[in-house]
Specification:
By secondary structure, this protein is of the alpha/beta class. The strands form three sheets. The chain has a seven-stranded mixed β-sheet with strand order 1-4-3-2-5-9-6, covered by helices on one side. A two-stranded antiparallel sheet has the order 7-8. Helix content is 24%, strand content 18%. The radius of gyration is 20 Å and the shape is globular.
């Protein structure tokens, strides 16, 4: 696989025509024009860089989720987010950027030139494109590192037809972890992998960055490392919530329990089902299911 990266750029009032302005000008859908226009002035004050000051507000936030507040914590945990990106609606991208504005240290996106049905697709976020420029214009926050890595099976355009769509997803997500490591992820940071339309609320993200959460304490055995969301599902509008359907994503995980981030002498990488045990799903006995570690040392 190959990759490209450009640092996110700060939004400035001096720029007469920003990438976001250009996208707004090209957008014909009224609701999207409204949403994108709101992004121009959307700047919540909380950021991943700030020192904790209002301890009473932080304690109250923790209590809302049944969590304790550690008054010794002076700074928020950093959050590294990653997702595959393709034909996601700008409605969804903009909503996610607004909800998490200023809270992600890293936004690691991966685009492939092949669909999950193994058919070719044109890149939507290549270097120097308007779409890529908007992503990196500061919509996720002025200090968030936004990158788009390109996943290609074969530079000559050949597609390995033996790879299932879901396996291809997993291989693409390997680039997310590589980007997190490149951007300096540490063992006490939080990683989130999701689709663009899967997100934690801003209030819960702030709680995860601040509160005392058992799965985020140091010294984990990493046998059941993920904190899994039970998410509401809606179609077209937040007012159209499905009554009998929940979704068990996105997930959070401590950097200590991530391959290549955590201590591999303490937490051996599990064998997997592809590329000599290095990629794809974990094998039976190596963490394929929760508490399924019979073959692990």
């Amino acid at each position: 696989p190959s990759s490209y990266d450009h640092s996110s750029q700060n939004k400035t009032e001096e720029e007469d025509s920003s990438p976001l302005d250009e996208l707004i000008h090209q957008t014909k859908t009224p609701s999207l024009r409204t949403l994108l226009s709101l992004l121009k002035d959307h700047a919540p004050t909380e950021t991943f860089r700030e020192k904790l000051k209002d301890t009473e507000a932080e304690r109250a936030r923790c209590q809302r989720y049944g969590l304790l507040y550690n008054r010794m914590r002076k700074k928020r945990r950093r959050v590294f987010w990653g997702s595959i990106i393709a034909d996601d609606s700008w409605h969804t991208i903009a909503a996610h950027a607004a909800e998490a504005y200023g809270l992600y240290h890293t936004v690691a996106l991966v685009e492939s030139n092949t669909t999950l049905q193994l058919t070719p697709r044109d890149l939507r976020f290549p270097p120097d494109s308007l779409n890529r420029n908007v992503l990196q214009s500061g919509i996720f926050g002025p200090n968030s590192k936004v990158s788009v890595d390109l996943y290609v099976d074969d530079p000559g355009g050949l597609v390995d037809q033996t790879l299932s769509g879901l396996l291809r997803e997993q291989l693409q997500r390997e680039l997310i972890l590589q980007r997190w490591k490149q951007n300096g992820m540490k063992q006490n940071d939080i990683g989130i992998v999701s689709d663009v339309d899967e997100m934690f609320s801003r209030d819960f993200l702030l709680a995860a960055m601040t509160c005392d959460i058992p799965k985020f304490r140091p010294g984990q055995d990493c046998r059941s490392p993920k904190m899994v969301a039970k998410a509401l599902v809606f179609e077209s509008s937040p007012e159209c919530v499905a009554d009998e359907k929940n979704w068990m994503h996105p997930d959070m995980i401590l950097g200590e329990c991530l391959d290549t981030i955590g201590d591999s002498t303490l937490h051996k990488p599990g064998e997997r089902e592809y590329k000599n045990g290095t990629l794809g799903d974990r094998k039976e006995g190596y963490g394929k299911h929760e508490n399924d570690y019979a073959m692990m040392p």
